[in-house]
Amino acid sequence: MGNEVSAFAPASVSNVSCGFDIMGFALEGAGDTVTARLSDFPGVRIGKITGCRSPLPAEAAANTAGPPVLALIRECAPGAGVEIDICKGIPVGGGIGSSAASAVAAVVAADALLGTGLTRDRLLEFAIEGEKIASGAVHVDNLSPCLWGGFVLVRGYHPIDIVRIHVPDLLWCSVISPQIEVRTDHARRILPKEIPLRDVITQTGNAAGLIAGMFTGDIPLISRSLEDVIAEPARRHLIPGFGAMKEAALAHGALGCGISGSGPSLFAIASSRPAAVEIAAAMESALKETRVPCTTLVSRVGGNGARIIS
Ligand code: HSE
């Protein structure tokens, strides 16, 4: 690689209703781009940040793209200096993996720039350092689909065990992102500390049902399984128009609809692209009542993962 490398990392939907912290899929059509170049100053510096509505931290230690690259340098290229430019294509605090995409694009670009040739598993270990800043917790349900693409199950965290899940061809999704910010650390603090056994059984059954449905292409099973009895009840009040948007999605044939990550974005799964377009329009129209503007994305479920673009 030369003195400058750019990597793109996609937006993602995590949790997927029944898979809190353990499921996620990559989206097409939105993502962050990070350009990394060699610098004479050891460590990481952030150059330009573009594409975001409100300013993001320019200090490397406070931006989700900084610590992953610093950790990579410390372990694999001691003494190296890297400057990164970040071009945001994903709204910050929108629930579609903005912090994960910056962290992933940064480590993928730095790895290519420094010629460290790391596996995706190793890159994930470094990218986690960025997610810790965003949410104060270790969760890889945006980072993993962002790195690998497709639909990913995090089977375990100790150690991290990533399983790639088959996606039936016809699955599409509509993602509506109301233009307000929900902080992931806040959305995690308001979750219940204890879960009744009845809810654990419901959630576990749904998670298993969703994975079985994905592998067998059983659309009614996928639809029945897209239910969240743990995070959604605690978080839905953070999202203007949540009930109206979900009702509109289901009334227009969505297989399921829920909060994308910690919100405020909502995702709805559909069994064709035209259905996803119709559902997106219905959800947008339901949100209009609240006068909160939104952006909309219609994507295949499980787009490509992070990649070098130049
Ligand atoms: N699984 C995480 C959460 C995703 O819901 O808190 C945050 O984007």
CATH architecture of the largest domain: 2-Layer Sandwich
CATH class of the largest domain: Alpha Beta
Strand content: 25-35%
Total separate domains: 2
User: What are the bound molecules?
Assistant: L-homoserine
Largest sheet: 7 strands, mixed
Indicate the CATH topology of the largest domain: Ribosomal Protein S5, domain 2
What is the count of β-strands? 11
State Rg: 19 Å
Mean pLDDT: 96
State the end-to-end distance: 10 Å
Q: Secondary-structure element sequence? A: EEEHEHHHEEEHHHHHEEHEE
Please count the helical segments.
Answer: 10
Shape: globular
Q: Write down the oligomeric state.
A: single chain
The structural class is alpha+beta
Task: Give the fraction of residues assigned to helices.
Answer: 25-40%
Features:
310 residues; alpha+beta; Ribosomal Protein S5, domain 2; Alpha-Beta Plaits; seven-stranded mixed sheet; four-stranded antiparallel sheet; binds L-homoserine
